[in-house]
Amino acid sequence: MNSATGFGQMAEFSIKEPVVKFPKSKEGAVLEHEYKFTNSGKAPLIFTGYSVQCTCTKVVVPKEPIAPGKSGVIKITFDTNGRTFYQDRVIILNTNTKKKEEKVRFKVYVEPKQ
């Protein structure tokens, strides 16, 4: 067992806006967002992977550990092509926090092409 977790010191994913609502968009648009977060724990925060509902959502997580007290960014892009009407997407982030999985989410209404 590693000493950082042996003494109850863990990374902690803190985010002010885990859910983002994009403005109404037209089909074909590629939407982008950066989720800003902080490691409010006592050990480095490590992202080991993520999962999304479909290939229309791309995610970029930090490759390097985020030190305690430091901040980072998770970048997402959502391709609305073929995705119309109300869209509600959850991104599951695999981490070394106590919960092991953290979530961010976005919502958007996509108007179909005419």
Output the keywords.
single chain; 114 residues; mainly beta; Immunoglobulin-like; 5-stranded mixed sheet; 4-stranded antiparallel sheet; 1 helix; disordered N terminus
Can you summarize the main beta sheet? 5 strands, mixed
Q: What share of residues is helical?
A: under 10%
Residue share in β-strands: over 45%
How many domain regions? 1
> With helices defined by DSSP (H or I, 4 residues minimum), what is the helix count?
1
SSE order in H/E notation?
HEEEEEEEEE
> What is the general shape?
elongated
The low-pLDDT segments are 1-5
Rg from alpha-carbon coordinates: 16 Å
Q: From the helix content, strand content and strand pairing, which structural class follows?
A: mainly beta
CATH class: Mainly Beta
Overall pLDDT score: 94
Distance between the termini: 59 Å
CATH homology-level superfamily: Immunoglobulins
Q: Count all strands and give the number.
A: 9
Question: Looking at CATH, which topology would you report?
Answer: Immunoglobulin-like
Going by CATH, the architecture would be Sandwich
